[in-house]
Amino acid sequence: MKKALTAIQPSGFLHLGNYIGAIEPAVKLQTETKLTMFIADYHAITVPQKPEDLRRNILFAAATYLACGINPNRTTLFQQSRVPAHTELAWVLQCVARMGEVERMIQYKDKAVGKGESVSVGLFTYPILMAADILLYNTEIVPVGEDQKQHVELARDLAERFNKQFGDTFLIPEPQIRKDGARIMGLDDATKKMSKSATSAKNYISLTDEPDVVRKKIMTAVTDSSTEIRTDRNRPAITNLLTIFSAVTGRPIEAIEIAYLGKGYGEFKKDLAEAIVEYLTPLQAKLSLLLADETELKRILDDGAARANEVAEHKIRHVRKVIGAKL
Ligand code: ATP
Ligand code: LTN
Q: Which stretch carries the motif 'KMSKS' region (predicted)?
């Protein structure tokens, strides 16, 4: 079985974009691959986090993964900061990475814009920590949203450079980007991705939004000028809504297009809202049950960390040896 790895930052609520772009593909991968999945708490602190919020968000992210169908017996599920080899390898790779290639990372440019000199150094070096996350586990496949592709490519470049310099140590990982839904767009602006850091809550559907909130957000979602319900590169808003409809129901987009031939946006949006509510209601029920038992959640994460440490320790010992740090 191939080895896959993915992670999500515990930076608050999760939205449908995170679900469709990252969580759902990971849930599917559990059956076809040996999956490693973690909560990237050390990535989250690249921007200021209140300690009590971070703690709550770590538990929330773990519970969300489980509620969405991650099976902790099958998948290694853990918290990044519990496996020290991540930060240790990140340091070694920082000494392999070059300023120029890290400066090219688009996400850093996006997130640092307008913040001047006050952004953390961690925000800049974070793709190198991500490379360490991936390379520690002999990862072959990294399922992520489109926005993370460049970071996976950096991980590949660093692995190749390290291997050339110190001998074969790391496998070269491949990003796996799903065709539809790799980039779910904002409901209030279909030219930008759905995002936690959006200024308006109308941009996204949180996985914890109540039914009435979902209905309101879908009914007020922007649409395009034409009335046809059909995907079209020049009509990002309706294309986005169709993608979401397909993702939450499992129906192919073409089948949905046929079902709404000659029908209006009003009816389409009403049905879409109900499909989302139907999808989210059982998920929310599972989530509250999981969150109510913190002891069990922590037990699952402890068990995952123990398994992850075994693999990661093995790799970092090898790294120390080949770079000459082992006496
Ligand atoms: P922010 O908006 O603050 O950058 P985010 O919403 O992108 O945060 P992340 O924690 O950075 O959330 O992403 C978690 C995972 O979800 C990543 O694999 C990312 O590619 C994916 N993802 C995030 N937003 C979307 C989106 N709009 N469409 C598809 N996938 C997404
Ligand atoms: N940077 C990713 C989260 C992440 C990740 C990883 C994803 C951290 N380490 C390793 C895949 C593999 C993000 O979603 N912002």
A: 193-197
- Every domain of the chain and the residues it spans: 3-176+294-323, 201-288
Ligand 1 pocket residue status of 156, Cβ below 6 Å: no
Distance 31 CA to ligand 1 centre (A): 23
Q: Which of 28, 111, 202, 298 is catalytic?
A: 111
Per DSSP, helices labelled H in 206-327 are 211-219, 236-249, 253-259, 265-292, 294-323
- Is the pTM above the cut of 0.70? yes
Is 195 annotated to bind ligand? yes
Condensed to tens digits (0 to 9), the pLDDT of residues 233-262 reads 899 999 999 999 999 999 999 999 999 999
pLDDT of residue 180: 63
List the CATH code of the domain at 3-176+294-323: 3.40.50.620
Is residue 270 annotated as part of the catalytic site, yes or no? Answer: no
Query: Could you confirm whether 321 is annotated as catalytic?
Result: no
**Highest CATH level, class, for 201-288:** mainly alpha
Q: Could you report the per-residue pLDDT of 6-20, keeping only the tens digit for each?
A: 999 998 889 999 898
Residues 259, 239, 180, CA angle at the centre, nearest 5°?
A: 95
Other CB atoms within a 10 A radius of the CB of residue 84 amount to 13
